[in-house]
Amino acid sequence: MATGLYANMVPSSSRARGGWGCPPGKGEAAAASLSRQLTDSLPSCASSPLSTDLRVGRASTCHSSQLTGLRYPTEPPRTPGFRPVPAGSWGRGPARPPPEEAARGGAGGTGRRSRLRRRTSASGSMADTPAQPTKRKREPDAEGAEGPGPGEKEAAVGNGTSAPVSLPFSGFTVQKVLRESARDKIIFLHGKVNEASGDGDGEDAVVILEKTPFQVEQVAQLLAGSPELQLQFSNDIYSTYHLFPPRHLSDVKTTVVYPATEKHLQKYLRQDLQLIRETGEDYKNITLPYLAAQSLSIQWVYNILEKKAEADRIVFENPDPSDGFVLIPDLKWNQQQLDDLYLIAICHRRGIKSLRDLTPEHLPMLRNILQEGQEAIRQRYQVTGDRLRVYLHYLPSYYHLHVHFTALGFEAPGSGVERAHLLAEVIENLECNPRHYQQRTLTYALRTDDPLLRLLQEAQKR
């Protein structure tokens, strides 16, 4: 029996909602319908199968690693056939973080999360002490970040709780479907919130809803007993159904960006891209001044490095202030399966914005990230270095040097040739030419309405 399980799996309280697909010309009707649904289902996690991005983390202890001066969070032994571990057993909560792409070309964005965390003791080890309630904003659909502009609310650091929580706003009236993908089972919504609180016309928020991947060990539960089905069609040996899973198997990853700025709305809006070639001189004279004028904040990165947030999620750390880094799961990976494994190494040294800043002085740090990062992933997830894609983005989504580790078979956002630069080749390029990345012409894609694209195009016409 063939079934359309993935495409048709919906929360039990949302059976009449249909799929994410939005036929041409039906956007306004779909937005109105979604507005009613979200207003009913989003305010409280206690009564809805939607799982929000305000996720729960679990504290864990640490022990010394086999590499001198480095630390791994402890975990039970793994078998080669990886199976998810119960929440709390090795430093992660029951569900997931946010989606993709991040602020393309540094356009930055932020989202909200909360997790339990461990605080760092004076000796530098992770101590299981009670977390202090703080909050932070972070890019969902990605990685980007930006600081609050004039009139914008200050971001804070968030730590979670296992108890049901409410969203950081009341009500949600859909204004526009910014983007949606039937293939990826994801939809990006712009909405107005807090309209009933007397706050003028309300505030802008972005909500991203994404179906979560199947977990192999739970798939059998979907078909056990007498599952609730609606027949779509039957022809000879082939049948297709809508299957309505029980609540604990109908998780919808929900990412909230609130308050959202115009940059966030533009970031998530589907737009055309255009390639541009940036010379070393273009970078110094155009790109760098443009980025400096944006006043983008990366405080959320410093919160991670300083263990003010997400300390419970750190997979590995080399604490050296010059050549060290932390390795942490990317928000796009729910850590339930290895097919889409995705981690980020964030260097401790500050002031390195991107690939363009790298010189031979940074080679020890880059080698540490490549070698120790691969070894940490091998020990933690039993995935060897030859099954990993390790690369940097240019342009990056935020301007503090970080390196991406993804499963080789996973087509991660931004892993195309116009943006990804393999770390091993970056190291070799710097060994051959100390000024390689200050001199080399780099190609990347920008949105057609990006002011930087216009500036570069005008400069190249002269």
Automatic annotation (TrEMBL):
Its main location: cytoplasm. Residues 41-51 have a biased composition (Polar residues). InterPro entries: DcpS/DCS2, Histidine_triad_CS, HIT-like_sf, Scavenger_mRNA_decap_enz_N. Its EC number is 3.6.1.59. It is found in: Cytoplasm; Nucleus. GO terms for biological process: deadenylation-dependent decapping of nuclear-transcribed mRNA; mRNA processing; RNA splicing. GO terms for molecular function: 5'-(N(7)-methyl 5'-triphosphoguanosine)-[mRNA] diphosphatase activity; RNA 7-methylguanosine cap binding. Keywords: Acetylation, Cytoplasm, Hydrolase, mRNA processing, mRNA splicing, Nucleus, Phosphoprotein. GO terms for cellular component: nucleus; P-body. This is m7GpppX diphosphatase. It comes from Trichechus manatus latirostris (Florida manatee).
